[in-house]
Amino acid sequence: MEKRPVDVVVISDVHLGTYGCHAKELVNYLKSINPSILILNGDIIDGWQFSKHYFPSSHLKVIKEIITMVTHGTRVFYITGNHDEVLRRYSDLQIGNFVLTDKLVLEIDNQMTWIFHGDVFDNTTKGSAKILAKLGGKGYDLLIILNRFVNFILHSFGREKISFSKKVKDSVKQAVKFIKDFEVTAAELAIEKKYDYVICGHIHQPQKREIENKHGSVTYLNSGDWVESLTALEYNKHEWNIFKYSEKDFSDVTTEDTKPTLTVTTDQINFFINSLAI
Q1: Distance of alpha carbon 120 from its chain centroid, rounded?
Q2: Which residue among 5, 38, 74, 98 is least crowded, i.e. fewest CB within 10 A of its CB?
Q3: Closest by alpha carbon to 201, among 1, 6, 14?
Q4: Which of 165, 161, 139, 143 is nearest to 151 (CA)?
Q5: Among the listed ranges 4-8, 164-168, 180-184, 259-263, which one has the minimum average pLDDT value?
Q6: CA 268, 198, 187, 194 torsion-angle sign
Q7: Any idea what DSSP says for residue 50?
Q8: Region 118-137: what's the mean pLDDT?
Q9: Which of 249, 240, 168 is nearest to 204 (CA)?
């Protein structure tokens, strides 16, 4: 597989350092692309559940691939999320092609794109509720481990894999409502700010949809995650699309380099990324 030139790639919610992270699959994906810009939209390293007893080599390889991209000319923007919020004290740090920030605005092909993780809309990640959220995160991790064991058995018998957490989310009306409210809130703020696109992560739900109200419309996108969905957002040929990882497509990855041509204005980006204040 030759490396694909891609204009912009957005990934989020990798959760390195947890059992649920599909690091090997992400390494395969990163080896297969050659983006001009890579945006890491929060929760890349899971600081909430990080343990020195669990950080396998496959997780380190993800970091290695990102560093390799930086050294080979890819501009990498790391946008902080709630699970890696410890990095927010270093926001606006820039080292060569690498930028650490809290949110980002890009002008891509004369259209304005607003990118941030999205935990700013989630009250369960703030104050005393954060303690419950962290405990819930550990329970989610255990559910993922159990799910992988069950899927291993199902695969052995030639049965289709299932997702426990997706079934739980889809069956709980409150969870469905939260996702819908999250998307609408992000979109309405983007419309108010006159943006053409708004990109979030956080809720682990890949999405591309047009949302409109009486003041206008915006394209809402979500990059999903690398725990269950195994998705990313790709901007190529003047269009955003959701990339979905499939094992059969990654039997061979080479390192041939081809840089795409892209009209992306980011020279004045520091005017847009000073804080999380909306």
Answers
A1: 15
A2: 5
A3: 14
A4: 161
A5: 259-263
A6: positive
A7: -
A8: 55
A9: 168
3-state secondary structure of 84: coil
Residue-wise DSSP of 207-271: EEEEEEETTEEEEEEE---TTTT-EEEEEETTEEEEEE--GGG-S-------PPP--EE-TTGGG
**Running DSSP on this structure, what letter comes out for residue 110?**
T
> Which domains can be identified in the chain, with CATH numbers?
4-271 (3.60.21.10)
Strand order in the sheet with 264-265: 207-213, 216-222, 197-200, 111-116, 103-108, 264-265
| Overall residue count recorded for the chain in this entry | 278
Residue 201 contacts residue 222 (beta carbons within 8 Å): yes
Tell me which amino acid residue 141 is. D
Q: What is the pLDDT of residues 92-117, one digit of tens each?
A: 899 999 999 999 999 999 999 999 99
Give me the amino acid identity at 49.
Q
Distance CA(179)–CA(72), nearest Å, equals 37
How many Å apart are CA 250 and CA 228, to the nearest integer? 18
Output the pTM of the full model.
0.77
